[in-house]
């Protein structure tokens, strides 16, 4: 992981794929030179030489496209929200637009079926959970609105394989406070008298998840031969240790496999889960720290937003010198405001002065800055590709053999679905070096589709973001029916082997 190269953005290459080997290097280099010039040519040859001779990871960073999202001046001083923040509904004519409350996903209306000579053989989905209450750490000490979760909440109980252990009562959690507990008032009430878990997937979020599953079923069930009931011999579902992913799974799977009532889902240990992810990688942590808190490229936007912070703090009651991270990024305010708007609640006012409220323009600025931050975290910072490779490399190490086994016909699994978080989908986008980065909203998904060409023994990969082929800044260009080997060797070039990744994380 020590070798990092920065290359200029490359458009779309239709000559030889970059991974074809030494014997094609010269032919590819000529085509590349014609398109992007001598600097990019030398950069790619250096990458190929390093990868082919050393066989180790050699991260190449490709800067993202420039847009309003990663334009700090616009984020600070522009107008409007960077998408929809008030409803899960997106009009059909504008489907594909950024909707924080319910991101666009694969569905029949927009789905583009490849030519008939290609057969779909394997699909892997990774998605963020659907909309929820805010995290407790993102609520004000005392909120000016209530939030009731009566009749909705996480279900928690154990179940055995047979007999009375398999016939158990469903248990649903609802939060409460008892004034006799002397510690009750040691923390803020947040939403006063709320019976919500913070966080939990809301009833509206479960509806979105069910629709998401139904839409995926409409596209993939017939193409992959999936029945009404989940068949664990050909389908696997994976969640993280955070309960909100299992809450989404319950609703999504009812839409995806409508006659299935009970499913065993996969979950890795909370000490090394690659999906969330939680595995230890001190090197990744130090890289991100260096280009955020340790860099004026990051801290400048916090300083420039001082007036906005002052207004938000006056409403929330958060201290300017807080130690909970409210002023190290806009994450806390973003979650607080967006969760309310997505559920039809009003923007907050001060509990001490009800005339002092967060305006829509101020909320929009928070949303623009939040998206700018995520673009910087995962794409704009030159070391972001290396960070993504280290931070999420373990998941890609698991994806690689899924694809390879499907190509070799050694894997009966046809469909894998991972339900995760924004902190999971974001490094996937960073790893693939998407051209236009955003903060992945609720229900956002990346879909890997593996196809086989009927008339030749070759496989191709399409990667969908928001239901459309993903456009990257890399030499792979748009991930639309690329040779699967291109992706497999791109993964190798980013992380090397498992031992390479582990060593790099602890170097």
UniProtKB/TrEMBL annotation:
Pfam families: His_Phos_2. InterPro entries: His_Pase_clade-2 (IPR000560), His_PPase_superfam (IPR029033), Histidine_acid_phosphatase (IPR050645). Signal peptide: none annotated. It comes from the Eukaryota. One of its GO terms (molecular function) is phosphatase activity. Belongs to the histidine acid phosphatase family. This is Phosphoglycerate mutase-like protein. It comes from Mycena belliarum.
């Amino acid at each position: 992981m020590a070798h990092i190269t920065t290359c200029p953005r490359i458009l779309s290459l239709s000559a030889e794929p970059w991974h074809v080997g030494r014997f094609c290097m010269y032919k590819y280099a000529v085509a590349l030179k014609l398109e992007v010039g001598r600097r990019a040519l030398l950069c790619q040859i250096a990458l190929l030489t390093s990868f082919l001779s050393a066989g180790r990871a050699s991260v190449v960073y490709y800067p993202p496209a420039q847009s309003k999202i990663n334009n700090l001046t616009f984020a600070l001083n522009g107008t409007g929200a960077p998408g929809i923040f008030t409803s899960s509904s997106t009009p059909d004519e504008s489907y594909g637009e950024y909707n924080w409350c319910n991101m666009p996903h694969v569905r029949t209306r927009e789905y583009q079926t490849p030519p008939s000579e290609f057969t779909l053989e394997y699909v892997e989905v990774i998605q963020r959970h659907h909309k929820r209450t805010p995290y407790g750490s993102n609520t004000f000490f005392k909120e000016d609105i209530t939030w009731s979760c009566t009749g909705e909440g996480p279900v928690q109980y154990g179940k055995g394989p047979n007999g009375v252990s398999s016939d158990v009562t469903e248990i649903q959690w609802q939060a409460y406070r008892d004034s006799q507990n002397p510690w009750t008032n040691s923390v803020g009430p947040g939403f006063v008298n709320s019976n919500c878990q913070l966080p939990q997937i809301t009833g509206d979020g479960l509806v979105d998840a069910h629709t998401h599953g139904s839409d995926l079923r409409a596209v993939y069930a017939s193409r992959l031969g999936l029945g009404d009931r989940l068949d664990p011999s050909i389908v696997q579902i994976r969640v993280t240790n955070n309960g909100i992913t299992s809450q989404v799974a319950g609703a999504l799977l009812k839409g995806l496999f409508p006659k299935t009532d009970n499913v065993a889902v996969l979950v890795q240990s909370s000490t090394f889960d690659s999906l969330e992810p939680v595995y230890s990688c001190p090197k990744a942590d130090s890289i991100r720290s260096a280009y955020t808190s340790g860099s004026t490229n990051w801290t400048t936007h916090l300083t420039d937003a001082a007036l906005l912070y002052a207004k938000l703090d006056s409403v929330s009651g958060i201290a300017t010198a807080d130690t909970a991270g409210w002023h190290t990024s806009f994450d806390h305010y973003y979650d607080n405001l967006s969760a309310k708007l997505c559920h039809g609640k009003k923007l907050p006012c001060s509990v001490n002065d009800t005339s002092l409220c967060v305006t829509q323009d101020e909320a929009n600025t928070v949303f623009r800055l939040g998206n700018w931050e995520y673009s910087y975290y995962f794409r704009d910072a030159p070391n972001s590709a290396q960070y993504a490779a280290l931070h999420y490399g373990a998941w890609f190490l698991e994806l690689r053999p899924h694809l390879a086994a499907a190509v070799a016909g050694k894997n009966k699994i046809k469909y894998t679905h991972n339900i995760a978080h924004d902190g999971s989908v974001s490094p996937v986008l960073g790893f693939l070096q998407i051209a236009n980065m955003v903060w992945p909203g609720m229900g956002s998904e990346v879909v890997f589709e593996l196809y086989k060409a009927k008339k030749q023994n070759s496989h191709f990969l399409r990667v969908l973001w928001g239901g459309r082929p993903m456009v990257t800044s890399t030499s792979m260009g748009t991930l639309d029916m690329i040779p699967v080997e291109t992706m497999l060797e791109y993964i190798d070039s980013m992380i090397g082997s498992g031992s390479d990744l582990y060593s790099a994380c602890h170097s």
